[in-house]
Design goal:
This protein is α+β, with helices and mostly antiparallel strands. The chain is built from 4 helices and 4 strands. The model has no long low-confidence stretch (mean pLDDT 90).
Length: 98
């Protein structure tokens, strides 16, 4: 994966481009607060994103497909979007069906 995610102070979010979609995806600090379980700094948010980058990118792709988000339209992920993908990945890793 590339290191193209960045913190944007103006929207208190990690943003990253969605490959093949022509837009950005934002994940607000509040979503990271829920996922991490504490009040995160911008660096904490970026570190968490990097640790689970594939999951965040897959969650963005799943949301685009589920909601029918048009190419070029930016989107945001909630903690629920990311947690859904993390849970699905965990179930698959343990041989369960999502």
């Amino acid at each position: 994966m590339t290191n193209d995610a960045q913190w944007r102070d103006d929207i208190a979010s990690v943003v990253f481009p969605v490959e093949g979609h022509g837009a950005i995806c934002a994940v607000h600090r509040g979503a990271f607060r829920t996922l991490i379980g504490a009040e995160p700094s911008p660096e904490d948010c970026l570190d968490y994103f990097r640790r689970y980058e594939i999951t965040f990118r897959e969650a963005a792709g799943a949301k685009i497909a589920r909601k029918g988000i048009s190419v070029g339209t930016s989107l945001h992920l909630t903690s629920r979007d990311v947690a859904r993908k993390l849970l699905e990945d965990h179930e698959i890793a343990n041989g369960e069906q999502p």
